[in-house]
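Today's session is about reading a structure prediction critically. Students often jump straight to the picture, but the first step is always the sequence itself: look for stretches that repeat, for charged clusters, for runs of hydrophobic residues. Only then move on to the predicted structure, which in these notes is written as discrete structure tokens rather than atom positions. Here is the chain we will use throughout the hour.
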Amino acid sequence: MYNESYIHEHKQRQMEPFWWVTAFLFSTLGLLLGLTFIIGGPVLFAVYMKTWLLLFILLIPLGIWICIALTRVLKRMVWRNRHLSSYRLGRNQITYHTWNEDNKTDSEGTISFNHIQYVVASIYLIKDNHAYTKSRIAEQVPRMALAPVLYIVYEKNGQQQILTVPFYMDTAINTWLQGLKENQIPLLFSSLNLYDMEDEERFQSIVKGEKQLPFTFEGDWLKQAASLNKEWFSQMEDTTLPEEDNSDEEYQEMMRKEQETKKVHFRAWLRAATRVYPLLIIGSYISIYLGESHIISDDGVLPGLILLIISAYLYFHFQRGHLRKSLMPRFWVESFIICLIHSMFAEKYGTIAEEITTGILGASIIIIVIVWIPYLFVARLRKA
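Below is the predicted structure for this chain, in token form.
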């Protein structure tokens, strides 16, 4: 099918090696963590025969869930990287070979220019742009980016069909639009978010010609897209756009809001971390003192659980204005690191200190099972 000479070939990109290795390593570490949760409790209990170690059995369901979820993620990553859609623009036809991730099937065919009715050019949002864009070391690549997409409407066996050809932030679309223009194929523009629609909804919107603006390609899509977007909004009866607005400004505003949100979340986290984790360390030393004074038992995780539940409540409370579910695993990881470091330094304080900090470290592992309790408590208080 690809033997005929062609003008341009457009292929779906593989993930950049750095991001592929990074994602693979983190997924592998997550799998190891899940396996540790599954077998760690029984192994520790068999070795040390301490009753409180049975609490680690509570982590087995979580470990199973982590392993299943990350296995699916890895399979999806490998599948995406190995099944890349490709499109070829010929002198009198378009040849394609596409893959459907949902049902893991492929489709290939050839579309003669004589059967193409028109082409709708639009834009879509690349959500993982940084992972598929080549960049130099320390070069900032936006995580999200607006890129062009072509919807080629053609007739096959008496029925209208649509081929979606998504592009990246490069000049490849210029070659395609120029080739379509030279073959006198009508070009239309739409600022509707067609790409994220369901297949049937997208099909109906395109074939009905809803809110589509005819245009003539002028040689540079990136320059022309802004003016087309402005003209499109101005001609839509139920949509208005201030004269100074355009797609680039909308994108920049979206990125600015995203960066501002990240800064706000970071400041809230920093405020919580600088207050909670020093208290966690102080609480650990108080637990050691109480253990040495024989006020509390030095064998078990109960003191650690109480200390960590209080710390979790304060952690969520100080971030109550920006409360989100991702804070629960974040607290779990951060508190585990703090407890691990503290336990390393506590050995020099004697056997009781070592037992207490080991119990707190164990509590920091199993706290993930109940960390949702202080989270929901803070969430409920915020709504009250």
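Discussion point for the tutorial: DSSP finds ten helices and nine strands in the chain.
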